[in-house]
Specification:
Distance between the termini of chain A: 50 Å
Oligomer: homodimer
Mean pLDDT of chain A: 89
Largest sheet of chain A: none
Structural class of chain A: mainly alpha
Strand content of chain A: under 5%
DNA sequence: GTCTATACGGCGATAGAC
DNA sequence: GTCTATCGCCGTATAGAC
């Protein structure tokens, strides 16, 4: 509700305390769990403090604005995703790996959570964009080795193999489902052609 | 931030005052403008009241819980979208009409706004799902007349023509763009084949 | 039925004490 | 470097005036 307030700030100091502080990592771990369990809206100075058994003021000391905490969480998640994709695309069927990963429910939920977060905390948007770009470049690198097999521009292919299952997941989270089965069948047919099992 | 509180309620009376009240429609109009201009987070009892020149208590009289106000706005938006699509798909190139509409920036922004809203106001989700289903059925009805032209299952086609530009819009809102151009070129090529200008 | 006034417990952010 | 007190928002509930 105070979006404008945080958006209009120049650039104050964004971090206090050492980056290696034990307290700091304990706070991050606790915040991550709260976010996974109850959503970003449940991540408050008070709840994180309670989870890490410190005072709310101390959490705020390490993360002066709540954005800073979310950004740290988002960056860590992005790194994890890229790690996973890098490993999963080395089995000879990189396109299927991309499709399968994007089809995972957990990832879609997390994406929705961060999209919603970015939507009312303007500092988060650019971090998401940069993370999305990093992920896409990693996917692109993983499929270009065999790109002549696919008959479709690699960049378009990677986008589609991510966007389609993601949007299906989003819609299903709310209860819209018309066309999902038919679309999945279409993609499966294509994958069977270009990356037979 | 008080999601749990509103979620745990049985089912109190959800509306007071007549549905045709002049005050009620004034409140809705004002709320719509605030939402379009500053996002859903700026829609508060106090801001809406100020916009409609009434007291916050009166807004709450007509919409006892803020969800009720958002649901009224979402339903009205869905009706408008269906009206628009019904008209736009009658020019002989219904698939292009679907694609063009989903490519509009305003609609994508609004969708993101409502998705974010649904993400932390659980009462909104089902209303979004139902609205999405209504829109999709209308689109489906509009293209099935000429469906033999398309070579792809109509339901999959409608989903893709909506999902692709929507996801492109979402990603661009944050700053991810790899693959967008290539994907758009791909779709344009397909549209030129099945619905030549 | 319409509408106002007020109170409560939550929140993020800030200033400043230790 | 660590932590507290306080401020001004918020949604919601309630009591009651007209």
């Amino acid at each position: 509700m105070n979006d404008e307030a945080t958006g209009g700030r120049a650039e104050p100091k964004r971090r206090a305390g050492s980056a290696t502080s034990k307290t700091r990592t304990a706070i991050l771990r606790g915040a991550e769990q709260i976010m996974a369990e109850h959503g970003y809206a449940a991540v408050t100075y008070r709840s994180v403090a309670a989870g890490a058994a410190v005072t709310p003021g101390l959490v705020q000391y390490y993360f002066p604005v709540l954005d800073d905490l979310f950004i740290a969480l988002l960056r860590a998640d992005t790194d994890r995703i890229i790690d996973h994709l890098t490993r999963a695309t080395q089995d000879g069927r990189p396109l299927r790996a991309v499709w399968d990963y994007a089809s995972g429910k957990a990832g879609t939920t997390l994406m929705l959570e961060f999209m919603a977060l970015a939507n009312h905390r303007k500092a988060i948007g650019p971090v998401m964009g940069e993370g999305g770009e990093r992920v896409r470049q990693a996917q692109l690198a993983a499929i270009t080795a065999a790109s002549q097999r696919y008959e479709i521009a690699p960049a378009a292919l990677v986008f589609l193999m991510t966007a389609i299952p993601r949007m299906i997941g989003l819609e299903e989270a709310f209860g819209t489902s018309t066309g999902h089965e038919e679309t999945i069948a279409l993609v499966r047919q294509y994958l069977d052609e270009v990356e037979p099992l």
